[in-house]
Amino acid sequence: MAYKISNDCTACGTCISECPVEAISEGQIYKIDPEVCTDCGACADVCPVSAISQA
Fold first, then answer.
1. Contact between 2 and 48 (Cβ < 8 Å)
2. Looking at the 3D structure of the chain, how many domains does it have?
3. Most CB atoms within 10 A, among 7, 15, 18, 47?
4. Tens digit of pLDDT for each residue in 10-54?
């Protein structure tokens, strides 16, 4: 099950460098491509506002 980013995202950029498969794209609220996400959880572990969870 892929991870998703909620509206609590502050677009800080911390998660992007942690994603080993580059599944996260920038925006006002970042997005995770569920087709690319490998469910590793690295992004969720580093999110300072806990905006990332499993879908």
1. no
2. 1
3. 15
4. 999 999 999 999 999 999 999 999 999 999 999 999 999 999 999
Please give the Cα distance from 42 to 52 (Å, whole number).
10
CATH, residue 41: 3.30.70.20
pTM score, whole prediction: 0.90
Length of the chain equals: 55
Q: Which residues contact 17 (CB under 8 A, 6 or more apart)?
A: none
Q: CA separation (Å) from 30 to 42, 47?
A: 15, 12
Q: Which ranges constitute the DSSP H helices of the chain?
A: 14-18, 42-46
Counting Cβ atoms within 10 Å, is residue 4 exposed (0-12), middle (13-18) or buried (19+)? Answer: middle
